[in-house]
Q: What sequence folds into this?
């Protein structure tokens, strides 16, 4: 099985592009929110790819050597989880030239880059769904989606009933991945961006494309271009079905996060915690264990400093444990400086570049952890034993 060897040496940094840094004001929307404004579901704050380039030294100083980007393709939302064009960088984030420049800088510094692939659903503005809205049953794309009845109501308030949509949300029409043309489109996208130089894909809600053959084909396509490309699936439960030759190299290890939070909240004792986290190591093959994506926070969860109730010692303990566990530890942008916030959209706030707002003690501790993990092979490649 081709699990990329570099993943167990990776320390990821997750970037939500609109909120990391605004490096190019020429691509800001006219109604851009002030940087640091209360995050909203629809408002843009102007973060872009040029901003990541300008702050690349910050990432290197922190000690990360891999980046996971939330979606960067043309979309009709600030989070970009409904895609309009899978082959185009969102103009509000920059150009293909900007992305290539970012990839070049990353690779020159031995930093890997993976991007979010959202293939279960698209945007209402995606060309095929737009044609369906215009032409109804006469649309050549009538079988690209799951239509229940015509005419299609895609814009009035309420859940989608005329067609299947992700969680019933009207602006996320669900693809019919049984359609050969849809499958081919997704495989072409998978291949294209690997050819452009990305180092892997994070797959959004892959369990909603409940088709082993689809994911086996996806893996073959990606690995045929770059055998060392990393595939990580957003699976929230512990489930060995989703790793291996027909699926992914690793999963987002939310069950580990759950166990750690239960420990600091004292919802379980240390022995129960030990049994839970060791159990996670035994349900997957060893090579997949070391390719798991370990995260304390993400764009879908409350900020970890908030979950620790602002307790620096507990937050340090969580980081310490994650950095000593098998897999690839991940820093969600800003968690290293103690950003607080509840669930979406409050966990997606702008990074405060005024250092007076940073918890420098926490940031220094995270920098020490990245340095120790890099210098200690046992932390990256060793076996896990209870003392």
A:
């Amino acid at each position: 099985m081709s699990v990329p060897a570099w993943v167990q040496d990776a320390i990821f940094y997750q970037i939500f592009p609109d909120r990391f840094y605004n490096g190019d004001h020429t691509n800001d929307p006219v109604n851009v929110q002030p940087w640091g404004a209360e995050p909203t579901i629809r408002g843009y704050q102007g973060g872009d790819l040029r901003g990541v380039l300008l702050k690349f030294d910050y990432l290197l100083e922190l000690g990360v050597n891999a980046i996971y980007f939330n979606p960067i393709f043309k979309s009709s939302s600030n989070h970009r989880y409904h895609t309009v064009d899978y082959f185009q960088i969102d103009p509000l984030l920059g150009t293909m030239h900007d992305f290539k420049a970012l990839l070049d800088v990353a690779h020159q510094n031995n930093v890997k880059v993976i991007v979010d692939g959202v293939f279960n659903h698209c945007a209402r503005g995606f060309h095929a769904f737009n044609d369906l809205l215009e032409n109804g049953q006469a649309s050549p794309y009538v079988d690209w989606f799951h239509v229940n009845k015509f005419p299609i109501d895609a814009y009035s308030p309420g859940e989608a009933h005329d067609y299947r949509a992700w969680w019933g949300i009207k602006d996320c029409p669900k693809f019919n991945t049984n359609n050969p043309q849809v499958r081919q489109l997704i495989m072409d996208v998978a291949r294209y961006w690997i050819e452009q130089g990305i180092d892997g894909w994070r797959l959004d809600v892959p369990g909603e494309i409940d088709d082993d053959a689809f994911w086996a084909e996806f893996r073959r396509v990606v690995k045929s271009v770059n055998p060392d490309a990393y595939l990580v699936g957003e699976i929230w439960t512990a489930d060995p079905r989703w790793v291996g030759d027909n699926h992914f190299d690793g999963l987002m290890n939310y069950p580990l996060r759950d166990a750690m939070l239960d420990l600091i909240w004292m919802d379980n004792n240390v022995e129960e915690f030990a049994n839970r986290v060791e159990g996670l190591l035994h349900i997957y093959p060893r090579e997949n264990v070391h390719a798991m994506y370990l995260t304390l926070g993400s764009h879908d969860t409350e900020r970890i400093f908030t979950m620790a109730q602002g307790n620096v010692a507990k937050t340090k303990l969580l980081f310490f444990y994650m950095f000593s566990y098998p897999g690839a530890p991940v820093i969600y942008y800003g968690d290293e400086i103690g950003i607080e916030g509840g669930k979406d959209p409050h966990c997606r706030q702008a990074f405060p570049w005024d250092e007076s707002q940073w918890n420098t003690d926490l940031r220094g501790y995270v920098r020490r952890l990245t340095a120790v993990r890099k210098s200690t092979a046992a932390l990256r490649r060793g076996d896990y034993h209870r003392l």
Notes: The mean pLDDT is 97. The first strand starts at residue 12 and ends at 15.
